[in-house]
What does this fold into?
Amino acid sequence: MKKIYLSVIGFSIICRLGAHAQTKQDTTRNNHPFAVYTPGSGDSTGYQSRALRVDEVDLFSSYYNQNGDHSAVTGGIGTQKVTDFSSGLDLHLVWLNQAYNKNTLSVGLGYDHHSSASSAYVALNGGGKPGGDRIYPSLDWTVENAQKGTSFGVGAYYSGEYNYKSKGADLHWSVKTKDRSGEFGVKLQGYFDQVTMILPSEFIHQPVAQQQGTMIITTASGNTEVVGTNGQVISSTKNSLPTSPRTTLTAAFSYSQMINSRLQIMLLGDVVAQSGYLGLPFHRVYAPYLQTPNKDTIEKLPSSRFKLPIGVRANYFLGDNIILRSYYRYYTDDWGIRSNTASLEVAYKITPFFSISPFYRYYDQSAAKYFAPYNAHTAADIYYTSNYEDAKFQANYFGVGFRIAPPNGVFGWQNLHDLEIRYGHYSQTTDLVSDVISVNLGFK
Amino acid sequence: MKMIKQFIKISGCLLVAATATSCAHLKEYQKSRLNDSEMVLSNRKVERNELNFQSYLEGASGANAGKTGGGCGCN
It folds into this structure.
């Protein structure tokens, strides 16, 4: 927590310095609610400073709490209690190159700390590690040619946690229509992940008698320990557990269009191909036909998956102070999941600078071909999982958000450009429920 | 193959719906409402953790400018 407070204070000081250094107003983006875009506003000489400056810093924080009774670690039964605290920042640096094209360098860093009751049951006796941390830095560089209406960028990401490491990269490109009322975008993205093969404790090699009075134990974290007759660890060797690769390649397409002065829409479509180890090695499956002592095994899923989600967003400005934000997605994949997602958010502007936004999201999905609940798989199943992520269910998610963005800064603090707070309650027909509260602070 | 056909059908319907709607040529001063920060056609910044937990809990993902799989322990 101390680190988080220090990073908040540190970045607010950076913002303050940046604000003093910046003497020219940004004309490339208009975020002022109800403001009318005025081309050519600003310096009448046409001079534009090309210097590097901090455009925006976002600090975000979120607390998530979940409860349920269908954990995949315990084969579709057992606690799904999870708490997660995440926080991070995004820093956007802007400069103009020699051709006066806008360059944006976005640097992000996120950190999660979670506790998961089911993780403890990777060890059969519930004595496993009940939580973990994740850190995820990211980098993106985008060049915008305002005259041509094009942009091009590259991005890179990393995510590291105890049992999962991921490296990712993307290329993205967009072009506006001639009349600048539409924009087509493409993003090609690849994630190259490594899943650490942490097995449930009953599948780890049993202690091996090494010599009289000692034995070798391999722990779930991959350490090899030589243990004496009195249980004392004589020596310990840190081995690395084997990992399995998982690759995700995505081509994401989007097209946005202004329909009239109040309505704009966006069509989205992704083509996703995954390959490699697509399950998790500590997800158990129980079945009556199994010969193992606990009648369990590890979930087994195909080594490839092809996903096709398509969606549409439509935002409509109703009257003078209501904005309807809607979204629909249809999803299908070759594991047999079909899904619909629909959401509506009504942003009501109490003042031009303060809005309240209740929202509702509906989600349903059919079950994957490989899913069966606890103890229901049969010997005929080639692939099997009891992970309720692949079950048939419906989910409802509702809540409310608040956004404050006054021209003289939030709480009179000029650098704090906007503040967003959002709370949501999520429930599935599998009896899983969760709550999430998030805060985002935008500094300029 | 059936899935691809289904995808093409739905994409086609969405494209037809988009193009069939008359798109008026807007002057800059007519875009004041569209330029409002609440009208942005993307997820809110404050939503990022919500999208993350949804990708853990649900089988479907993508087409929301978010993750489509990979990058964390979720599928």
Notes: The helical segments of chain B are 2-20, 48-57.
